[in-house]
Amino acid sequence: MSWEDGIWKGVPYTPGEQPKRDNLIKLNTNECPYPPAPGVEKKLKEMEFGRFRLYPDPEASSLVDALSGYYHVPSDQIFVGIGSDDVLAMAFLTFFRNGREILFPNITYSFYDVWANLYNIPFRQIPLKEDFSIDPSDYKRENGGVVIANPNAPTSLFMPLSGIREILDANRESVVIVDEAYIDFGGETALPLIDEYENLLVVRTFSKSRAMAGMRIGYAFGSKKLIGYLQDAKFSFNSYTMNMPSLELGVEAVKDDAYFKEVCGKIVATRDRVAEELKALGFTMPKSSTNFLFASHEKVPAKELFEAMKKEGILVRFFDKPILNRYLRITIGTDEQMDTMITFLKGYLASK
Ligand code: PMP
Question: Do 221 and 89 lie in a common domain?
Fold first, then answer.
């Protein structure tokens, strides 16, 4: 017997690198290249320092109410947490305890299997189709829950809402999580379906489209009953998940709808232009509905490109796993950053 016997020894999730160097073009973690809304900065400067001696509101009411007003969903159908990672982790902990296998695609956000392992949840990874799409009929088998990222990552592909509905119709007796981290860049949200399906949780984040990854704000919509269960788990785990600045700055971000739409519009326009330019250089990629491109070059291996770009100070994401290792996941930056990348790739590929 050793003191180490009873310790969890799983393999943790590996987040994208946050390099210590400043002068990089950082396109590796799907962050927003633009700053948060101007009102967020104003609020930050006005914040009363002395209040930080107090605990934040455990109900996170100001943020929940702001989201409620913006999305027209009652406050008791909204849950918030420390980024959508926290919301998803809490959802796995709360909803998947029936001992049956949960289902998610074999290529998707690679945190899902980590949480499943952490909580001893059995799971099955369902292969995507050849074109990286999800076949809803694969999710019509016995299961203890379903998790779908829509749009999916890192493939960037969106599944039409009819597919989500098909999965929901086949799974009335288990919780279905739709992770919409990238929904503001394309696709159709499953949000309206929470009124029809009591077992649907729609998860979102401020990290990408609201340019606030550093503040760690995630949220979810669901039926009153489903959100109630999540709240009970949260209050059995940590009452004060959201800190005071994140709550207050999150509210300011929600208030500025014009800025939010402008940022999303710019990223989508840059994405679609860069996709065409990459295709002209010999890359292929699924049609992106996200703030990143999942691109593979017809001749040059992804790993080689990843390393050459890194040397040049352009950091993208490379997954050293079968299938994925043919691709680079390139976050959409500013037009200027993308131009620098394209110029480098043009030169590099011409020299091959
Ligand atoms: N879901 C998906 C599909 C993601 O790509 C990410 C970003 N890594 C997250 C959830 C988590 O984002 P955050 O915790 O920053 O909200």
Answer: yes
Same domain, 70 and 166: yes
Q: From the alpha carbon of 213, which atom of ligand 1 is closest?
A: 15
Asked if the structure places residue 136 within a domain, the reply is: yes
> To which residue do tokens 């690198």 refer?
17
Q: Do residues 200 and 59 share a domain?
A: yes
Ligand 1 atom nearest to CA at 206: 16
Determine, yes or no, domain membership for 11.
no
SS3 content of the chain, % helix, strand, coil (to 5): 40, 15, 45
Q: What are the Cα distances from residue 305, in Å, to 172, 295, 313?
A: 45, 11, 12
Looking at 223, 255, 287, the residue that finishes a domain is: 255
And the tokens for 89? 């982790």
What's the chain's length in residues? Answer: 352
DSSP category for residue 155: T
Give a yes or no: residue 6 inside a domain: no
What's the CA-to-centroid distance between 84 and ligand 1, angstroms? 6
How many angstroms separate the Cα of 9 from the Cα of each of 85, 117, 161, 175?
20, 10, 38, 27
Where do the DSSP E strands lie in the chain? 25-26, 78-81, 102-105, 123-126, 145-149, 176-179, 200-205, 218-221, 283-284, 292-297, 314-315, 317-318, 328-331
Identify the DSSP state of 187. Answer: S
Consecutive 10-residue averages of pLDDT for the chain (352 residues): 93 88 91 98 97 98 98 98 98 97 97 97 98 98 98 98 98 98 97 98 98 98 98 98 98 98 98 98 98 97 98 95 95 98 97 86
Q: Do 318 and 215 share a structural domain?
A: no
Residue span of the structural domain in which 266 resides: 25-35+258-350
pTM score of the predicted model: 0.97
Q: Are residues 233 and 105 in the same domain?
A: yes
Same domain, 124 and 43: yes
**How many angstroms separate the CA atoms of 89 and 321, rounded?**
24
**For residue 138, which of 172, 170, 180 has the smallest C-alpha distance?**
170
Q: Which residues line ligand 1 (CB under 6 A)?
A: 83-85, 109, 149, 153, 179, 181, 205, 207, 213, 218
